[in-house]
Design goal:
Elements: H1 7-12, H2 15-34, H3 69-105, H4 107-121, H5 125-136, H6 140-167, H7 170-177, H8 182-218, H9 230-237, H10 246-273, H11 275-280
């Protein structure tokens, strides 16, 4: 096998994977660095320094309360990653279990699970968050729950569709003939064969979670003050849009780069992990 046929060799030649990986790594590094260091405290109110232009002291300027925008962006990355990881984990765990169950049992179990998924699709993440907020109040926890619940039917449908194909494969038929039960076959044969697809889908949903978290925070339903959030920074920037346009520019760019990076990474992983696509490249 040639070097270019290996995963690292193909990855180094795939521009989407490289660009997406670089942007995603930068997001993780910024969030990790903000845990131990920021240029200034993102919670420090300094009214005399409000609405300062980008400078050596304030790299991305300051907002209407004198907060350092660059420091707020760094800490805001923590929220985006936290929401993405937990919300996608909720959707991946529950959705994969439901989808695998539907594919294994068929009949009324499959029909009921899929109709339940269709019903959940009628309540988008933002609408779900509004309902949760009305009952429990706004906050990052409710945002995570809303996004996680919306992710469940997505992973359920993806898992069910891919698992049904695997259940028709010869090695699964042989396992059934040997007396293996649905649960054992799912764990030993079905899930390992759809794992790459789930990884790609999780990467894409991670990007969507960041976008939804920003939208919810923009509407005042997500991360609450004083914790920095990219979406709320955009909301706060509206009042000074013409006086201080950088207040909207920098968080907007951060959201675009984070979502773009994860989508490119997911696209690259899809090409690299799919054997059919790998052979065609």
């Amino acid at each position: 096998m040639s070097a270019t046929a290996t995963f690292p060799g193909r990855a180094l030649g795939h521009w989407s994977f490289l660009v997406g990986g670089a942007l995603t790594l930068a997001l993780l590094l910024v969030a990790g660095l903000s845990l131990v260091w920021t240029p200034l405290s993102p919670y420090l109110i300094d009214i005399p320094e409000k609405l300062q232009l980008p400078s050596a002291q304030h790299w991305f300027g300051t907002d209407a309360l004198g907060h350092d925008v660059f420091s707020m962006l760094m800490v805001g990355a923590q929220n985006s990653i936290l929401v993405g990881i937990i919300a996608v984990s909720i959707g991946l765990g529950a959705g994969t279990a439901l989808g695998a169950l539907a594919a294994a049992r068929r009949g009324w179990v499959e029909e009921g699970t899929m109709r339940l998924a269709d019903f959940a699709f009628a309540f988008p993440a933002i609408l779900t968050a509004i309902m949760l907020t009305a009952v429990l109040g706004p906050g990052i926890v409710n945002s995570i729950l809303a996004i996680g619940i919306f992710n469940i039917p997505i992973f359920a449908r993806v898992t069910r569709g891919a698992a049904k194909v695997v259940w028709e494969r010869d090695f699964v038929l042989a396992a059934r003939a040997a007396g293996r039960g649905p649960f054992g076959i799912t764990l030993a044969h079905v899930l390992p064969n759809i794992l790459s697809l789930l990884i790609v889908q999780a990467t894409i949903q991670f990007a969507n979670a960041i976008l939804w978290e920003a939208a919810l925070s923009y509407l005042g339903l997500g991360t609450q003050p004083p914790q920095p959030s990219w979406g709320r920074m955009l909301n706060d920037a509206q009042a000074q849009l013409f006086q201080a346009p950088w207040l909207a520019l920098f968080p907007g760019i951060a959201i675009v780069l984070a979502v773009l990076g994860l989508n490119l990474l997911g696209d690259g992983l899809r090409d690299l992990l799919d054997p059919r696509l790998a052979r065609s490249r």
